[in-house]
Amino acid sequence: MWRRVQNLLRVPRLHLIRSRHVITGAASSPSLSIWRRKKEISKEGLMVAKELKRLQCHTVRFERFMKSNVSRLLKSDLVAVLVEFQRQNLVSLSMKLYDVVRNETWYRPDMFFYRDMLMMLARNRKIDEARVVWADLKREQVLFDQHTFGDLVRAFLDNELPDEAMRIYDEMRESPDPPLSLPYRVILKGLITYPELREKVKDDFLELFPDMIVFDPPEDLLDDQHWERESEDD
């Protein structure tokens, strides 16, 4: 009889452990993240997205619509609308929906959520907004893996934002996640047109991976790309 009572008492404890595991794992596991699933917008979501785009220049009406309609969207629709705005590079609307999502009761800090926002902001060269998003993820203690760091640094480099790229690179260097060689190679390739910065990252790479080799591009290629960048600036 006593054993049966002990077994019954153990059940809630096990249930709590499993539930806690799902919650903490959701922030980093691709299979559990809602931001990695296919996003299909319902008719209501499409109507809301269309109306938000129409009203974005009318502040009062826009805010009224946000409170009355956007707050009523299902989680799947809200996520899908934000992803669609990101795809269309609608920065202002994406930032509005970003704030809405973070205030939802179902919201959980998620690496992929922040990754997608920062990639979109890099494409549109929005440094101030990127720093706002970065400050939010730091407060929520979201950790990027090394591959995500490499992709983000490369995105900012590809969009000619080397200072912001190197700021993220410094965060990558301080990350508790063990360094991997591939993200460094991705960054080094993106730094071909920034030889001084490339030498810094190259030194870090060789210090971390002393048995590996970095293949430098031909000098004439560097000269041509440097000349092209100067011509564009002029």
From TrEMBL:
This is Pentatricopeptide repeat-containing protein. Keywords: Repeat. InterPro entries: PPR_rpt, THA8L-like, TPR-like_helical_dom_sf. PROSITE patterns: PPR (PS51375). PPR repeats lie at residues 145-179. PANTHER family: OS03G0297700 PROTEIN, PROTEIN THYLAKOID ASSEMBLY 8-LIKE, CHLOROPLASTIC.
